[in-house]
Amino acid sequence: MTIPLSSATVVIDSRLGSGIGRIVKNVVPRIANQVKRLILLGREDPREAWNIGAANVEYVKYDARAYSLAEQYRFPLARAIRADLLHVPHYNVPLLWPKPLVVTVNDLTQFTPEFGAGRIKRAFARSFIAWALWRANQILTISHYVRGDFIRQYGARAARLSVCHPGVDPKIFRPIEKRRALEQVGNELGIKFPFVLCVGSVRPNKNVAGLIAAFSIARRQPGFEHHLVIAGEREGFMTAARLAIPPEVRECVVFTGYVPDRMLPVLYAAADVFVLPSLSEGFGIPLLEAMACGTPTVASNRTALPEVAGDAALMVDPCDTEQLASAIVRAARDEKLRTCLIDAGKRRAARFDWDQTAERHLEAYSRALNS
After folding, report:
1. Any idea what the Cα angle at residue 340 is, between residues 337 and 341, rounded to 5°?
2. How many domains does the chain have?
3. Same structural domain, 9 and 138
4. Which CATH number goes with the domain that contains 80?
5. Number of Cβ within a 10 Å radius of residue 36
6. φ, ψ for residue 83 (rounded to 5)?
7. Percent of the chain residues past pLDDT 90, beyond the cut
8. How far apart are CA 38 and CA 61, in angstroms?
């Protein structure tokens, strides 16, 4: 017997932040009215912040630290077991969940030694993702690259894997008048301009050290007086010593720390160039957001980033600091190139729609319920 979504109760783990949290935040309001009941598990009730007014959406407190043993014995099974389906937006699935399960695989970076994961952490993560692979009725991946990587590494059955690209909201991420953006960024964040922008955490795979080295080369160009602004969480990933900021640019590199969502469109619009030089990415949402805001972009040619950027960014080898520096300077100075990148970026970003992302989620839920 086919189970329609309109009669199903779905539980979603909404604890995670960063790119994973951005996907959940944008998908939940779009699917709430398509199911009978929706239960959100999280540290805090997100319904007001996410503008969810639907009466069928409930909140259950679940504040165990992600990827810990505590999240297993503190999982609110007694409340969640009433549901028909559980969606976990990463591989940290509850071991005792007995019903249909949908898992999202965002990337496999954490299994790569060169990106900072220790042997014990990698073994822990691999055991959980193997369990998720065995248990999940449906698996969503956020890019074709991640889907292929998952099949190569784990021999996952392709029939259970579907690609579900994240999106960008054009009502939020859109061009803003440059002068107004610069004024707001200067007043609220104290940032000097002109500047080159990178958004993301300072994890090893983000290649921030390589970006700083390339920026140091770019600053040697006569007349190139840009600052480098790195916006995102820094603590717990890489120390200043490991980043090794050259003395000659130390005063020109700014770490903002966490930037609230409301400031991100303004920050993108104020930047002369956006750079995403990652060595590994499962997708790269900031790249799309910058394009939607009309900012010329430079991106790594590795992993999922070519899939996201298409022909709308200057693509470079992230390990070639000379090439990266040259691309940054060109994107900042060449007005004809800037115009082409801005126009192509807007068109590219428009192809990634959160409504389509939500629809892919609903399709996966329906297949899982009826598999």
Report:
1. 85
2. 2
3. yes
4. 3.40.50.2000
5. 14
6. -80, 165
7. 69
8. 14
pLDDT digits (tens, 9 = 90+) for 16-43: 877 898 999 999 999 999 999 999 999 9
Segments in the chain below pLDDT 50: 236-237, 240-241
Judge whether 173 lies within some domain: no
Q: Is the dihedral of CA 316, 319, 325, 326 positive or negative?
A: negative
Angle 162-164-165 from CA coordinates, rounded to 5°: 145
